[in-house]
Amino acid sequence: MAIHPPEPFRIKMVESIKLLDRKAREAAIRRAGYNLFGLRSEEIFIDLLTDSGTNAMSQTQWAAMLEGDESYAGARSYFRLAEAIEEIFGFSYFLPCHQGRAAEHILSTCLVKPGQYIPSNTHFDTTDANIRARGGHPVNLVIDEACDPKLRHPFKGNMDIHKLRIFIEKVGVKRIPLGMITVTNNAGGGQPVSLENLRAVSETYKEFGIPFFIDACRFAENAYFIKLRESGYAAKSPLEISREMFALADGAIVSAKKDGLVNIGGFIAMNDEALFEQARNELILQEGFPTYGGLAGRDLEAIAIGLREVLQEDYLRYRLGQTTYLAECLLQLNIPIVEPPGAHAVYIDAELLLPHIPQDQFPGQALAVQIYLEGGIRTVELGSLAFAYPDTETDQIVYPQLELVRLALPRRVYTQSHLNYVAEVIEETAARREQIPGYRLTYAPKLLRHFTAQLKPLKQAKFFSETTKLTALSSSDQ
Ligand code: F0G
User: Fold this and answer.
1) Residues 71 and 364: beta-carbon distance below 8 Å
2) Of all protein residues, whose CA lies closest to atom 19 belonging to ligand 1?
3) Atom of ligand 1 at shortest distance to CA of 103?
């Protein structure tokens, strides 16, 4: 097994974690309606639900938080963040907001009208939902290679330029208020986008006069992939590559909870002054005054430092090394994953691992629940539960191409032995995969249903211990 780069930091503060026994885990997941979002964090041993807001901050960030300027207007901390954003992103204007979806909400409120279309490689769930909430249609135009989990393409997050052009010509520019791309492509396996593709996307949008926004939550990870994989970039720094990426766009929306290396925060940045003024008014309405935008001054300080720390090469080498390590462990155990792995997560192909569970019985969710039962590990389903929507015209359910379970790695949080444990638990889960039941929904809201949905197993899982089985069978709803 390849040696992976060790952590370029040492641990100064720890947080205890405990593994509940099997029966307690069974009771917890049942109480949560078989939805891992419904668990309490104390019921989880290793939490790979998300890499968002789960980062460990550095001593420099914590120290800077004490210097946070909490003035309502014109805070010093705002200007520190402005400097970092100017240095890395280079857009003319920016507005802080409390997290990525607030930036999405503001952008959609300003630009999206009912019946309009917004293309991207793949919209993430909240972006998708914010567009739908304004009556718009999110459109995913990622390259076909992205839908083949086994295909080792270096930039599987790329957009299909041919499809994009045909789409724009078919729908007409008047119905496309903005075009987007997500780096890295979270919903498509955390895959990077090349600079060559970003350039082509930018030129296409420009040709048609469509404003181009990058969903840039994981910009540093994307930049490092470009450095490693795209010819001509090996000698450039992640900062230089990032600047080159953003110079191609008219703006960006960023959740700082990922590559901002913080626990809360985000921003929207743009070059268009009129859009900025409109967005600023929305921000004041929804988030707060433009120099704090829904955050405390100390949060702005932490983001300013996080955005710079995340671009350090030893950090990025370790970060990608960790994901690669986990991916290699799983591949050695013959667990099907999306290849090559992205930077922030490893995605298991649940459809391939659980072929006996059809898409309308949520194979991804079934696997995620079972991994929790097996070893107290929380993962997240990115498949039919998160992404199946009724077609706007036919009302028939459109299922996503991939049924994935994401193992997201919080930044600077877990060690290699945690990852070894994760691999062992998944090996155990896979060994008994035929016994894993499908699920049915008992409650689901219309938008973003995976966060609060309630489910029930379709048949009694043999995994459950005898006592639980008896209780479950005797309860009226089984
Ligand atoms: N865009 C992408 C690509 C994301 O991955 C996320 C969040 C957002 C936008 C929204 O940002 O959470 O700060 O409001 N992704 C998290 C995840 C939730 O688990 O992947 P937010």
Assistant:
1) no
2) 50
3) 14
271: its two tokens = 């070059």
Distance 126 CA to ligand 1 centre (A): 7
Residue 101 Cβ inside 6 Å of ligand 1? The answer reads yes
The number of the ligand 1 atom at minimal distance from the alpha carbon of 257 is 13
| Ligand 1 within 6 A of CB of 255 | yes
CB of 378 within 6 A of ligand 1: the answer is no
d(CA 287, CA 280): 10
Q: 138 CB less than 6 Å from ligand 1?
A: no
Tally of CA atoms within 13 A in the half-sphere of 273 that contains its CB: 0
Q: What is the pLDDT of residue 163?
A: 98
- 221: CA distance to ligand 1 center in Å? 15
Q: Which residues contact 91 (CB under 8 A, 6 or more apart)?
A: 85, 246, 251, 252, 269, 270, 271
The secondary structure of 244-287 as a DSSP string is HHHHTSSEEEEETTTTT-SSS-EEEEES-HHHHHHHHHHHHHHT
CA of 255 to the centre of ligand 1 (A): 6
- Helix 22-31 vs helix 363-375: crossing angle, to nearest 10: 140
Reading the block at residue 30, the tokens are 């049942």
| Cβ of 50 less than 6 Å from ligand 1 | yes
Q: Whose CA is nearest to atom 8 of ligand 1?
A: 100
Q: Is the Cβ atom of 54 under 6 angstroms away from ligand 1?
A: no
Helix (H, G, I), strand (E, B), or coil: what is residue 405?
Answer: strand
Q: Which two tokens stand for residue 447?
A: 């938008």
Look up residue 49 and give its DSSP letter: S
Q: Please indicate, yes or no, whether the overall pTM of this predicted structure exceeds 0.85.
A: yes
Average pLDDT per consecutive 10 residues, the chain (478 residues; last block may be shorter): 80 96 98 98 98 98 98 98 98 98 98 98 93 96 94 96 98 98 92 98 98 98 98 98 98 98 98 98 97 97 98 97 96 96 96 96 98 98 90 84 95 97 98 96 90 90 42 35
| β partners of residue 253 | 215, 268
The domains found in the chain, sorted by start residue, are 22-44+313-474 (3.90.1150.10), 59-309 (3.40.640.10)
Tokens standing for 219?
Answer: 């910009």
204 lines ligand 1 (CB under 6 A): no
Q: Among candidates 114, 113, 78, which has minimal Cα distance to 94?
A: 78
Nearest CA to ligand 1 atom 2: 124
Q: Which letter does DSSP use for residue 431 in this model?
A: H
Q: Which amino acid is at 1?
A: M
